Amino acid sequence: MNKIGFNVLAWTAAVSDDLFPIIERLKTIGYDGVEFYLGPQEAAAYQRMGSFVKDLGLETTAVMTVGADENPVSESAEVRGRALDKIKWAVDRAHDLNSKVICGPFHSAHTVFVNRPADDREYALAGEVLNAAADYAAQANITFALEALNRFECYLCNTMEQLLKLVKAANHPNVRAMFDTHHSNIEEKSYLGALQTIAPVLAHVHISENDRGTPGTGQVKWDDAFAALAAIKYDGWLTIEAFSRNDPGFANAIGVWREFNEPWDIAENGYKFIREMGLKHGL
């Protein structure tokens, strides 16, 4: 059975001791690991969290984004330099958490558009930044799992075909890809075709409903998704990523204007759903 994780963004984008009781309860549900957003907290907060989670016998993964002032595809060398610095900083914080995976769309600035499709130069620029950052990540045995987002949040990578192009541009063994059922539900023709495309470099999977609520309660074609994951023999994390308005600042930044499901409903019923689908499809 694949490891099952839960992204605590359903509660907060902050890494703090306030999450300790939540993480303890996630363990009692049966989760193998917890995923954290790499935000602006001090190193000490990440170090305490890493020790706490390890002592509980759980693992961690991490997710990050970059903004306009640290955009890897910027024409400005200064901005790209800040992007490299930001990703290296994130590697340090992931190391504090004992994470071996940093996932997310940090190949380009979130929700920053240029009113045209991405071009080859932008893939090359992002690849250069990611290659340099991956050299740094390799020292901590950390893998980047880059994420394709839907067309409303990103223009560089919307599909697995584009994401594979980016991974090839980075040309580093520590730069790989992730698959998110929410974004793929919008952008791909089929789960099987998308997963077959990205299978050679797939390192992480987000299980996310079409409305970002409890997996299994919406319109995602879950049998197709799990059957496709089984067909490519995926053996990595299946991590639930769902959102709420518990952290208003983060919710406002990603356009979450209503509650989809209560976080504990997502955590408890989402875990049961993944277990059931995994057993059904042989994951």
Automatic annotation (TrEMBL):
Origin: domain of life: Bacteria
The enzyme's E.C. designation: 5.1.3.30, 5.1.3.31
Keyword Ligase listed: no
Domain Xylose isomerase-like TIM barrel: 24-252
Keyword list, A-Z: Isomerase
One GO MF term: isomerase activity
Entry annotated with the keyword Isomerase: yes
InterPro entries linked to this entry: IolE/XylAMocC-like, Xyl_isomerase-like_sf, Xyl_isomerase-like_TIM-brl
Protein name in the entry: D-psicose/D-tagatose/L-ribulose 3-epimerase
Upper taxonomic lineage: Bacteria, Pseudomonadati, Bacteroidota, Cytophagia, Cytophagales
